[in-house]
User: Fold this.
Amino acid sequence: MTKKVLIMTQNFYPVIGSAGNRMKNIFQLLNQNNVEAHILTTEPAYPNKSMYKDRVFWDDEDLNKKTEKIIRVPIKDRNFSKNIIKRLFFFLEIMYRFILLMWKLRKEKYDYIYVSTPPIFIVFSAFFGKKLMKSRLILEVRDLWPDSLIGVKTFDNKVIINLFRILEKRMYKMAEYIVINSKGFTKHIKSKLKEDSTTPIIYLPNGPRASEIVETKIVDKEFRIIYAGNIGLAQDIDRLKLIARMLNDRDIYFDVIGYGVKADEFTEYIHSNDLNNVVLHKPSTRKKSLELIKNSKVAIAFLNDEDVFSTVLPGKLIDYMTCKTPIIAGVKGVAAKVITESQTGYVFEHQDVHAIVNQIVILKNNPQKLLQLEENCLSTVKEDFLWEKNINKLLDIIS
Assistant:
């Protein structure tokens, strides 16, 4: 008998970034493996709603046709603000709209509800659906919340933070299964569960589809560096500015595909300092972003130095490996361990910008070492991060 699953997420195709791509892959691969998966999501709005009026982002005709399986909740046209209070009200609005939709769907028989967090408020609308439809709940944790909220240093109200911690513990306890995209989350989640808890925690990392993996790099005379992804509160924008200046001074091209609350600040810095070797690219589709990464020799990643971010495995790292592009990163913890053990690049203290740039120059003058790192990227992504292989962990739960 075919199982039926309702996936609840704020981020879904055509939303750019790791979260939207992750949920797209889960939805497609479940449906391709004899599971009837439906999506309950919002209208695309990250990093802003207006950009999705451009049909270039709607580049998957298969998903464009699956309208009966994709339910989109309309939301107000709000940009993702730095103001945490405004963002919280935005998330509460989504929770309220999801609850209304769950009531309309109450006669549907879903065997499982698969809900993705953050934000955690969507999870509580999933609890409503779990009771209403008598479904089992699979909770996906893509970020430790509220710890990550504290980590970006925008909100420190202890009363509300403590309330969020109570909600977080409740969230873990209500789930029959917990799915994580970083092994670094395991210890934290177990500490929030009872000692005798038997709730399974399943590691399901981000990754590429087989068709996205780059087997052969394009040979290009230009030595280009790339940064792709969020330029937000979790990233160290001051270090990124300094790297851009130092690469420009060394006549090395630096491509940046950036979006997020700090993107405008970074853009202004590049223009005001006449950094002519820094090329800024507007947010684009995953296909175009991977193409740009593929044409780069080295990729850069950054997270700020808060402990909570040592548990994170950023999706951009896997995208870099997918394109056979070695990584130089200012990260620690899980991300640093993955890069070091797979020998796909180099890791430095996030504030050690000079060491990062010096390593880029060393690689520029050592093409043989670059080739070895590229091959390590290819073998690692095939072995550990391929979606067609890892989706079996989720299929085993559902079946």
Observations:
- The chain has 15 helices and 13 strands.
- The longest strand covers residues 35-42.
- Residues 210-384 form a domain with the Rossmann fold fold (CATH 3.40.50.2000).
